[in-house]
Specification:
Elements lengths: L8 E4 L5 H11 L12 H6 L1 E4 L2 H14 L9 E4 L5 H5 L16 H18 L2 H5 L12 H20 L17 H23 L5 H18 L6 E4 L6 H11 L4 E6 L7 H9 L11 H10 L7 E3 L5 H13 L12 H5 L2 H7 L3 E6 L2 H17 L5 E4 L3 H12 L5 E3 L3 E2 L4 H14 L4 H9 L9 H14 L10 H11 L1 H18 L7 E2 H16 L8 H13 L8 E2 L4 H9 L3 E2 L6 E7 L11 E4 L19 H7 L5 H15 L4 E6 L1 E2 L2 E2 L4 H32 L24 E3 H9 L1 H9 L14 H18 L6 H15 L6 H24 L5 E14 L2 E15 L2 E8 L6 H5 L5 H10 L12 E9 L6 E7 L15 H18 L29 H10 L1
Parallel strand pairs: 1-5, 1-6, 2-3, 2-4, 4-5, 7-16, 8-14, 8-15, 9-14, 15-16, 19-21, 22-23
Antiparallel strand pairs: 10-13, 11-12, 17-18, 20-21, 21-22, 23-24
Helix pairs in contact: 1-3, 5-7, 5-8, 7-25, 9-10, 11-12, 13-15, 13-28, 16-17, 16-28, 18-19, 18-22, 18-25, 20-22, 21-22, 22-23, 23-24, 29-30, 29-35, 31-32, 32-33, 35-36
Amino acid sequence: MDAPRPARVLTIAPAAPFLDTLVAALLDGRLVPGGPIGDDPLALAAATIYVPTRRAARALGAAILAARGGRATLLPSIRPLGAVDEDLIALDTRPEAALDLPPAADPLERRLAMTELVLGWARALSPAARARLPGEAVAVPSSPADAARLAGDLLALMDQVATEEASWGKLAEIVPADLAGWWQISLAFLELATAAWPAILAERGLSDPIARRLALIDAEARRLAAEPPQAPVIVAGSTGSVPATARLMAAIARLPRGAVVLPGLDQALDDATWELLRSGDGEGVASHPQYGLARLAGHIGVGRADIRELGAAPPAGLALRARLVSEAFRPVGTTEMWESAGARLGGAAALAEATAGVTVVEAANEREEALAVALALREALDGGAGRVALVTPDRTLARRTAAELARWGIAADDSAGVPAADTPAGILARLAGEVALLGAPATAVLALLDHPATRLGLDPAVLRAGAEQIDLAVLRGPRLAPGLAALTEAADAAGGRAAEVARRLAAALAPLADLAGRETVAVATLAAAHRAALGALTAPAPSTGDPAAEAIDAALAGLAGEMGAGLAIAPGDWPGLFQALAGDTAIRPERDGDPRVLVLGPLESRLQHADLVVLAGLNEAGWPRPVADDPWLSRTMRAALGLEAPERRIGLAAHDVAQAAAAGPVVLTRARRAAGSPTVASRWLQRLAAVAGPDAWGAARRRGERLVELARALDRPDGPPRPAPRPEPRPPLAARPTTISVTEVETLIRDPYAVYARRVLGLRALDPHAADPGAAERGTIVHAALADFLGHYDGPFDEDAVAALTAAGRRAFRTVERYPEVVALWWPRFERIARAFVAEMAAAGPVRRRHLEIEGLLPIRLGARTVMLKGRADRIDETAAGLVVVDYKTGGHPSQKQVASLLAPQLPLEAAMARHGAFPGVPAGGEIEALVYIALKGRAPPIAVLSMAGVLEGDADRGVPDRTPTELAEEARQRLAALLAAYEDPGHPYLSWARPQFERRFAGDYDHLARLQEWALAEDEA
C-alpha cells in the first residue's frame, strides 16, 4: 500500500488580505503543486474551492476577476462548505460509494411537522400528569406559536447532535432517578421524538437537511480519497468545527493538488499553550481563539511547524499587534504570563507601536455608539479608504449605524438582511391575520389601511380619505365590538368614503374572517384563506419582484398544500403560528448598498478585508453572547450526550474578534449603558486593556474620545437650552369668542389658554383609539335615560317607576350597542342607579313643573360687543319656594366650598340664566331655592346628592361671605361679566394655567401646545 501523501496545510496572517493573498498564491503556483495556473484558463476553471459562506464565495469570485485584470475568465467552482456536487458523487460507480439519500425536507414543512409533534405532547401532558409534579413549574407550550418556537429549539438540538456526531442512544443513561420531575417528562418526550422523527421523515420520503448535507460531505471526502482529481481542490477560511467538514478538509489536504488554507493560525503562540489547546484539557481552553485550529491540525495530522504561511511578512507594528492579541486571549491556566508580557513584547515602545492603529470608543449609550461608529466609517472613506467594515453580532446596533450613515447619503451593504416578519410584506401578512381573526383591533385596522401595499381596488386618494374618516369618526372613542361586522356597521353610520373602504376591507378579508367562528381549522385551510386575503388586499397591484412578498407567498402556498393538512388549530392562533413558522426567514435586499461600506456578522467577516474594521457592541452578554439555556437538555445532560461545551461557540467568536483586532486599523466600541442599564465591558476588551497596559490603552481610548466628542457635537445645540416662555397670546378682539358655555367658564378661570386654543385656534383634542368607556359616554347615556324617564313619568315613584326608568335605560343603551364594553360595565351600574334615583325622587318634595335637558342663552353686554352665555341645564324644578337647579354628574362633583367660592361656577351660572329668563318656559325673576348635584356612579352608594339650599356657608379666611343660592347666582353673573370684560381688552392675554391650584384636578388637552413643562419648570427653578 502506498504511503499517505503529506498533508498540505497553509495559513494566512490576519494582517494580510485573505482572499487577495489566496488568489495570488493560486495563480502563481504557490498554493498547490503543479505550477502557475494564472495563464491557463482551463486549469483555473477546473479548480474547486470551498469557502465558509455564500458571501465569501461571491467575494472570492470578485477577487479572482480583479487579479486577472478584467480579462475574460472562466471562474473555478466556488462552493460554500457543504454544497458538494451530488452529480460527481452519483458518477462514482463503486458499490461502496452508492448513496440512497431522499431529498431534504423543506425547512417550513420540517418545522410544522415537529410543531405538530410538540403540540401532541403538550396536549397529552394532562392535568393529572402535571399534578405529579408538585411545586414544579411545568413549561409546556400554551399555544401553537409557542409549540413552533419550542419545535425550532428541538430541531436545532437535533441538528447539533447530528453535526457533532453525538448519539441519542445515551438518553436513557443520563436520567438519574433523583432528577426533577419536569426533566424526567422532557427526556421521555425526547426519547419518543428522536425515535419517531426518522419514521415521520421516511413516511414523507424526506431526510433531515443537516444529516443529508453531512452524508454528502462524507461521500465527497471518500470520493476524493478514492479517485484523487488532478485539478486543484482547496478549502479556505474554515476552522473545521464540524467533524464531517474536518474529514473533508483532511482528505483534501492530502490530494495531489489539494490544499487547506487556515485563517490566522497563531504561529507565535508558545508550545505549552498550543499543546494545551490540542489536548483540550484545562479551564477555558474551548473558548480560546486557536482551540478549533489546534484540534483541526491534530485531526488532519499535521504539526504547527508543518503549516506554512502564505503571503509576505506583516509590518512590524501589525506583527506586534498579533502577538499582543495572542497574549490577551491566553487560556485561564496560563494568564500568569501576563506579568512578563510587556517585556516579552519589547517594552512600552513596542506596546505603543502595537496599539497605534487601535481606537477604543466607550460611548454613553447605544445611540451615541452607533453615531461614533458611523463617524469612524465616514472619516475613513473621506480619508481615501477603499473599503470599511462594521462587524457586530448586534443587529440593532447595525441598523442604528446604517441609519446614521444614511444622513450623509451612505447606504451600507448589510449582509444579514431583514427577518421576513419585519419586512413590509411580513407586516402586511401579520396585520391581515390580526384584523381578520383577532377581532379587528383599532390600531391593526388603521395600520393595515395605511400600509403602502394595501389597495382594495381603490384609487390611493380615495383609500386614504376613507381611512382618515374611519380613524376620526369610527375608531376613536369607545372600543367597538370585536370583528369586521361591527366596524362595517359603524362606518356605514359615519357614511361617506369610510363606508366604502370598510366594506371593501371586510370583503377582502372575508376568506379568513369567515373562519374566525370555528372551533378548529386545518392549517392548510387557514393558509389558503390568508393567501387569498392578501391577494385581495393588494389588488389590482400585487407586490411583484419583492423578495419578501415572494417568500411570504411561497410559505403560505406551501402551508396551503399537503404539509398543512394534518394540523388543526383554533383560528385565533393562526397569526402567531404563521409568524413563528415563517417570520424568521432572512430576506436580503434586492440591491446591495455601497460596496465600500460593509456591515458583516462575525462569521462573514472572516475572509473579508477592509482598510478600517469597526468591532462594535463589545459588552458582556452582547459579544460574546451568553450561553443560552436549552429548554430540552441541561448542561450536564448535553455533556453526557457527547455535545461540545457551550464555550466552544465563544471560542469561534473569539477567533473572529482576534483576527479582526490584529488585521490593521481597528476601532473597538462599546456603550456604557444599554436599555437604560449599566453594562460591563466584554471580557476581550478587558483582556486587551490588561496586556496593553494603561499608557498604550489610554492613548487608544483618547483616540476614541475624539470620536465620541464629534458624535456629541454633531447634534449639540448652539447654546444652552432655552425654555419656552409662558404663552401669552393676545388675539385681536374680532377673533375672540362671542359665545361661552357655562362649562367653559371654569376653564377660562383656571386655564384661559385652553379656551384660546379651542375657540380661537379651533383645535380639538382627538379621542384615543378603542378607548375604555369614559365620562362623556357614561354621561350621554345616563342623561338621556333620566330625561326620557322624567319626561314621560310623573309618579308615583315606586317599583313601577323603577321598571320605567330601567326601560328608558335600555332605550338609551341601544345607541352604544356597538360598544360592548360600555354596556357590560355600565348596565349593572345603571340598574343600581335606577333604584336609588327613584328612591331619591320619592323622598323629594312636590314639584309644580319640571324642565329637562333645556338649552338657553343669556346675553352679557360688554360695551360695543355682546357675549352670549349658553348652557344646557340637566333639570330645573319649579317648586312653591322657587327654582331648584339640578346637575347630574356621572363622575365626581365639586365641593360646596368650591361652588360657594365660585371656583366651580357652572351651577350658579345656570341658576343666574334661569332667573334672567334665558331658558324658555322657565319663569324669570324667581328665587333660587337650591342648587343640587346628583352624582350617579352606580357603586356604593349608587348615587350621592349635594343639595345647597338656604344660607350657604362662606369662607372667612378667603373673604367669601355667607350667601343664599339666589345671591350666589347673581354674584356669579356679575363676576363673569367682569371676567369677560377683561378679555375685551385686546392687550389682555390668555394665560396658560392662570390658576395653577387646579393642576392636580385637571389634565389640560393643550398643555403640550403651551409647552407647560418647559416654562413651569423654569419658573420653579427660578
